[in-house]
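Co-fold these.
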Amino acid sequence: MKQAQDEHRSGCPINLTLEMLGDRWSLIVIRDIMFGRRRHFRELLTQSEEGIASNVLADRLKWLVTGGLLSRRDDPSHRQKAIYSLTEPSIQLVPLLAQMGAWGRRHAPASRELSIRAELLEEGGPPMWRDFMEELRSLHLGTPSPGRSVLAELQAAYLAVVARDSEGD
Amino acid sequence: MKQAQDEHRSGCPINLTLEMLGDRWSLIVIRDIMFGRRRHFRELLTQSEEGIASNVLADRLKWLVTGGLLSRRDDPSHRQKAIYSLTEPSIQLVPLLAQMGAWGRRHAPASRELSIRAELLEEGGPPMWRDFMEELRSLHLGTPSPGRSVLAELQAAYLAVVARDSEGD
DNA sequence: AGCAACCAGTTGCAAATCAAGATCAGTTTG
DNA sequence: CAAACTGATCTTGATTTGCAACTGGTTGCT
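Predicted complex below.
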């Protein structure tokens, strides 16, 4: 599993972020938990748009839990199930993921359906990011639930685009 | 060298950004060109804080040029030298790198000297990012030079921290 | 002209990491 | 009790990494 988490190439904050998250899968897993509401191993494995392999997923989950970006607890409804939750550090990745989405939408061949969330999040800006983080805290850390559901807004916009596209065919 | 650039795991903008930049070195190279004013192979190789290997550097430069994030031209002063420049897409990574720096500064063991730039860039926010991007366009794309030099501000702040720290010993 | 230093990479190799698919043992459901 | 589900692990082969030596050429100095 990657390198040791207590040895670092340098103390540069950008480098350290890269050492933690700079691979092809870690942020995909966080994205799916954050935006896709996945909480279990199977959900992450089978509902993944990109098709992650089970051993890689197992590695990444361990790595992220060790690094404090996810927490893992038993599911009371099923003795073997585990529930993965975001932590405060990973919730604070919202602005970073928003910027990544914004950049990818502009400079990479992103599909329209999958871009609408990034577009909304970019337009909403920091105020929307704050509301989204508040919502994630309530979902993952158990804080009181806020009035606004950014997740619902994103999902509604996504469904609207899918509906509009299929109606034209 | 990584995978083919025209096959994608999915059309998700976050995924596409990750496919382009999600490895341990690509963004380090861009960071050094952007903030460290390095323009030649040797400068990137020997002045790297993290110690990149020459073959990995050669790979990444090719990869980034192919992907349109860097451009490469001959140095008129030395027949064998090449000059690497940022392009508009990589200049638009400024907000992303600013967010990465901000996150790493908060949630990773970043050193004080190397964090001061991230701190300044975070405080300056989008207006400062815009000025910085304008400066980078002038340095790398040859547009008219703007009045403000964010690079100079960052460097001054860095030197001030280094001076303050060594004076206390 | 001769020579050392510099330049942008390339090559070879061992070790680590990654990806795909089959498999596993315990758990729940019908 | 059997089938399906759960979070993984194992095996195997391909890819990537880090390291060091090396290449073919350029430049500056004497």
